[in-house]
Design goal:
The structure holds 2 protein chains of 2 kinds.
Chain A lengths: L3 E7 L2 E7 L5 H8 L18 E4 L2 E4 L12 E3 L13 H8 L9 H14 L5 H7 L11 H11 L13
Parallel strand pairs in A: 1-5
Antiparallel strand pairs in A: 1-2, 3-4, 3-5
Helix pairs in contact in A: 2-5
Chain B lengths: L6 E3 L4 H11 L3 E4 L5 H6 L7 E4 L9 E4 L3 E5 L4 H5 L2 H6 L1 H8 L4 H4 L4 H6 L8 H6 L3 E6 L2 E6 H4 E3 L2 E2 L6 E7 L7 E7 L10 E10 L2 E10 L6 E2 L1 H7 L6 H14 L10 H19 L1 H5 L1
Helix pairs in contact in B: 10-11, 11-12
Classes of the chains: A alpha+beta, B alpha+beta.
Chain lengths: 166, 291
């Protein structure tokens, strides 16, 4: 195979990597750039564990070739926090509301949720479930995930979920 | 799961694409969004020595609507773009409905309408709406362009009328009559994500309570999306009554040709075609039926 250089922006930083044509974006992120927050679940675009934003839109990185991303912008779970110290409201809400158990689906869930809230800042429960249909979870049964996203969309204080206890 | 080895090409013009197809022949596969090709390569269902990415080909860009020309969907246009188009939601609601529940957000952000059609699964969700709206596929090759009515575009499962050196350049859908009513229904195991066990699109027009025209296309129940000609004949010229719904639905059930597969048995699909045809007619004629 003929290797090629791909240059792309990931979480605001420019990177160049020499990749095989059959290297997926997921593999580029995890193996070349060591950004292992993005997970590989099914490899066929069904589970959403590999979800990242490409030019601001949620996609399956397992179904995207690295070379397709030339000159483009990728945001992974590592780029979702507002800063080194400040989590994104979605991340905080997931933690506070117990929307994470084993954590494997969580990066994909959070990225999809962030994408949804960008386009629809106050989604209904039905809209949340529709938008997250491409993110599967084996642990939570989705209830807390949906509540956590709904809370962010409707300005609910995550602390309130614990009955006011600190 | 790793992709098998292949070479990757990113042409920017159709001439480059034709040259690549001529050079590499059957080992070259075109890739638009890649959401069918890449999983297919991973599981060994498809093979490619050369992947030709179409997303940078300038002649394939564009999504536009106007009242005279209708809707033009360039082959690079992604599902989400058509799904977010207000013109499509207003004038081609069945297409909007089909796209809204096709696969997942992640897939819709990458996959293309053209790819969905060229993959030619009889289950393709964009197929029956576009057929019902009378779409035409514009195919371009090194020797020129030809237009194929979408109804005639599908030749068999995974087989289309596209020639070896041709590319689907765009879809053209005529402007619909102002009083056209249309509806898409999809039935699958899960409410989201699954490929359809049965899908269909009904488009009809009424004049003074009588059905003036009807287009009923059924997906998944034949080797290609099929026109339910007998059901249509049963509807045209008739006043709307519950008894009509059942007669037309029964015709659709008789004329479809489903096979048993892992999604449903043939008998179950026939049953669902009956139910969905009846529901589609009901949904489009609620005012007339209750008069």
């Amino acid at each position: 195979m003929k290797r090629a250089i791909v240059t792309l922006t990931v979480n605001g930083d420019r990177h160049s990597a020499a990749v095989d044509p059959n290297t997926t974006l997921a593999e580029l992120l995890r193996d070349h750039l060591r950004l292992t927050g993005t997970k590989q679940g099914c490899g066929t675009g069904d589970c959403g564990a590999c979800t990242v934003l490409l030019d601001g839109r949620a996609i399956n990185s397992c179904l995207t070739l690295a070379l397709e991303c030339e000159g483009r912008e990728v945001t992974t779970i590592e780029g979702i926090a507002l800063s080194g110290e400040v989590l994104h409201p979605v991340q905080r809400s997931f933690i506070e509301r117990g929307a994470t158990q084993c954590g494997y689906c969580t990066p994909g869930m959070v990225v999809s949720a962030v994408d949804l809230l960008e386009r629809n800042p106050a989604p209904t429960e039905a809209e949340i479930r529709h938008a997250l249909a491409g993110n599967l979870c084996r642990c939570t049964g989705y209830t807390k995930v949906v509540e956590a996203i709904h809370a962010v969309g409707h300005g609910e204080d995550p602390g309130a979920a614990q009955g006011g206890e600190g | 799961m790793r992709l098998p080895a292949f070479e990757y090409h990113a042409p920017t013009s159709l001439d480059e694409v034709f040259a690549l197809l001529a050079e590499h022949g059957a080992s070259a596969k075109l890739m638009a969004g890649g959401t069918d090709l890449l999983p297919g390569l991973k599981i060994g269902k498809r093979s490619a020595g050369h992947v030709i990415a179409l997303k940078g080909v300038r002649e394939l860009a564009g999504l536009s609507f106007d009242e005279r020309e209708g809707l033009t969907i360039g082959a690079r246009t992604r599902l989400f773009e058509v799904g977010e188009s207000e013109a499509v939601a207003e004038r081609y609601p069945a297409l909007n409905e089909a796209i809204r529940t096709l696969a997942t957000v992640q897939v819709r952000n990458k996959a293309t309408v053209a790819g969905n059609l060229c993959n030619a699964s009889p289950c393709a969700d964009t197929a029956t709406p576009l057929c019902a709206y009378g779409a035409t596929a514009v195919l371009r090759g090194p020797d020129g362009v030809r237009e194929v009515p979408l109804e005639e575009f599908f030749v068999g499962p995974s087989r289309t009328a596209i020639g070896e050196r041709e590319v689907m350049e765009r879809l053209v859908v005529p402007p619909p009559p102002a009083d056209l009513r249309s509806h898409f229904i999809k039935f699958s195991s899960r409410s989201r994500v699954d490929i359809a066990a049965v899908n269909l699109t009904l488009a009809l027009r009424l004049e003074k309570g009588v059905i003036a025209s009807a287009s009923l296309f059924l997906g998944t129940v034949a080797p290609t999306p099929m026109r339910a000609v007998e059901a249509e004949k049963c509807l045209v010229g008739e006043r709307v009554t519950p008894e009509l719904f059942e007669r037309a639905a029964a015709k659709a059930r008789e004329e479809c040709k489903p096979i048993t597969d892992f999604r449903a048995t043939a008998e179950y699909k026939r049953r669902i075609v009956y139910v969905m045809t009846r529901r589609a007619i009901q949904a489009l004629t609620t005012e007339e039926a209750s008069a």
